[in-house]
TrEMBL record:
UniProt keyword terms in alphabetical order: Cell membrane, Glycosyltransferase, Membrane, Transferase, Transmembrane, Transmembrane helix
UniProt keyword Chloroplast, yes or no: no
Taxonomy, superkingdom: Bacteria
Protein name from the UniProt record: Glycosyltransferase RgtA/B/C/D-like domain-containing protein
Membrane-spanning segments: 75-108, 120-137, 143-160, 172-201, 213-233, 280-301, 307-326, 333-351, 357-373
Domain Glycosyltransferase RgtA/B/C/D-like: 74-225
Coiled-coil residue spans: none
Amino acid sequence: MKRLNNIAKWIQKNKLAVFIILCAIFLRLWRVGEFAMFLADQGRDAIIIKRIVTLQHLPLIGPPSSIGQVYLGPFFYYLMAPFLLLFAFNPAGLAYGVSFISIVGLVLGYFIIRKILDKKIALIFLILTSFSSQLLWLARFSWNPNLLPIFSFFTLYFFYKSLKTEKYYYSIAYGAFFALSFQLHHLAAFLAVPIGIVTAIFLFRENKKTKQLLSVLIAFIAFLCVTSPLILFDLKHDFLNTKNLVSLFTKQDMIAGGSPAERLIQTNHAFWMVILQIKLPAFASIVASILFVGGFLFLFIKGKVHLLALIHMINLVSFIYFFSLLSNPRHPHYYGSIYLSFFVVCALLLGFIPKKIYSTIALSILLAVYLVFNMKDYYFITGPANNQILHAQRVSSTLLPYIDRKPFNFATYPIEFTSEEAYLYFLEKQGLKAANREAREVTQQMYVLCNQEPCNVLDSHSWNIDMFGEAKIDTMWEIEGIKVYRLIHK
């Protein structure tokens, strides 16, 4: 009863924070099932996670990277498995799982910032993260990079705690969370930069070097333990993943060419446009960065920058620089490991605006403008649903009587239509597993889904279809903009 009274008192004293948290929950859960992306990657993940839940297969690797076929770890699959089971194998459960973890992460982040930095800074951080349309987009469907902002934040938090408390369980925690972040996306490897820089500073300044080095060793061991499934996979398959990773940097032009300054400007420009959700000229993003870094340096010189904020700033700056050296496209999810770092530093800067009436008004206007820019992307509140999950389920259900529980091949056309796993998930859910294409298995029937005219499925130049051999169209039907062809051998 006393605890409930304390919670009630806290809510009474922090009504604005509670309101913002409720808004964050609403924005991340409202109509998730109707708007959740369910395409190739989501279908593939759903199939793998279903096999985990039913104990058909327990993978040691996760999804491959889009470049170089370097595999991530399987952590995301196992993390999401309980949610698929909880939702009775409805893949919307995976999207709800990501939303739930994102909400918990943001709320815990608020309390961490409030305790370590300041109540005002924490409130600004909560506003920025709760209403960020980019974070909302990541939180509303299932995909391995979508949880990287949360896990990167906690990696740096536990690293900070290991420095401040010198307790080794925090070293285990940040080593483990670093490994989990790396399993969500390979670009999380850049978290090693702020960790390495700040560790080096502490080793140089502190007298307890042995204790610091032991902390690093413990974190490294924790990293290896959590990464052990990938290590076991590599040992079992002649270091396939390691070889692909080496090849990525030595043979596939992973390192960008051209002017380093130009690449840095492009990377920085892309980040500002994503984080603010507005189109900026490159010059404006340069000015914004100068003001951002300049404001931070001003507070740092004044002695008003906490170690946690410094770690996040180093993470932000170092990521932008090192990412600019790579030739990857600047997709929004690639910046996942620095989103919350940006909001921490931004909240710090805004939190130190003098407490005067005109300053409060200026801060309120800035936050209001930020909300307006982001709210234009809240299409899911009243907009028409895309129902990708329901679409895949409906289309798949029309195949059931034709398949008749007999072996079958499956493909999509044209080549750009790559969402076949979304349909295969619902077929496999009914106990119907397509022939193994990699093993070149050919059955007596093939189903081709076409979403774009002309549907030249018999003259497709698609290896997936051609491997079936000489064929003719047995029947065809159309559902929700998809033409479904049943092919049989001539």
